[in-house]
């Protein structure tokens, strides 16, 4: 049992020396783990970055692969490729004097993704992994009114849940409320967090203050990414960054949100932390995707599960 003044997430990571911070859901998800990763780096720990990638990895040369389905991205990787969040992060890391290699996983099924995680863990002797979701759909167990976009997130959860060789496996979710436009009911998110607390898998929540070194660097990294990826800036990290700055309501930072309404609010800047095996144990369909090799298999098996499973009706916040 920890004391109230001790953060349970950092307590779980206190003895870790080599930590992997990995984006669960593709795109710029790895950026959502940046404040946490920087805090660990500033504590003197070795930290590596990885991301399940939406980038065009298939065209990378043979020497860019550390193992099957494990690409090594550096600031100079694929210089003429436009959208490449992992390379953009590598360039920002180099700009600020941090280790600037970011690993990237292509979109695969659970089996090859687990093998790639295993290869990366063995390469660096990883003793802790923090899986990061920008949003909350990683917390959906399967019978909610809407699941958001669960395929990549749950592929990552399943891959790591079956990788017992890493002593500490954690999940953090940041960006509460962002997934509403993907059909996630956030009252059900809170209901799921309460259930995880009862199971002993919820490790509490804490904010990303802009007055901290890590908060300020995160804002800088998001601004850098928006500048260098103007055609597809991250709505998720843009919203989180706006919340960290203290913005509220329908904040506009990209034309990608035209036609919709954002609700940026202080809850978006909170990290919600969980034990990964405990979170995986509550997913109702994880066994169905265990033997998948392709992302489209995950998609179809989740769809089959949804067709067979009664869903909990959505609920509204009390007024």
Apparent shape: globular
Enumerate how many helices there are, as a single number.
12
* Percentage of residues in DSSP E strands: 15-25%
The major pleated sheet works out as:
9 strands, mixed
InterPro entries: DUF1152
Protein name: DUF1152 domain-containing protein
Pfam families: DUF1152
Features:
12 helices; Rossmann fold; 9 strands; single chain; 38% helix; nine-stranded mixed β-sheet; alpha/beta; 319 residues
Task: Characterise the protein shown here.
It comes from Streptomyces thermolilacinus SPC6. This is DUF1152 domain-containing protein. It holds the Pfam family DUF1152. With 319 residues, this protein is of the alpha/beta class. The protein has one domain (11-223, 269-308): Rossmann fold. It is 38% helix and 16% strand. It has twelve helices and nine strands. It has helices spanning 8-12, 29-32, 34-42, 85-95, 110-124, 150-161, 186-199, 213-228, 235-244, 276-281, 286-289, 295-308, and strands at 18-23, 46-52, 65-67, 70-73, 102-105, 128-134, 168-174, 202-207, 270-275. Strands 3-4-5-2-1-6-7-9-8 form a nine-stranded mixed beta sheet, with helices on both faces. Helix 3 packs across helix 8 (213-228), helix 4 (85-95) crosses helix 8 (213-228) and helix 5 (110-124) packs across helix 6 (150-161). The radius of gyration is 18 Å and the shape is globular. The two termini are 36 Å apart. The mean pLDDT is 96.
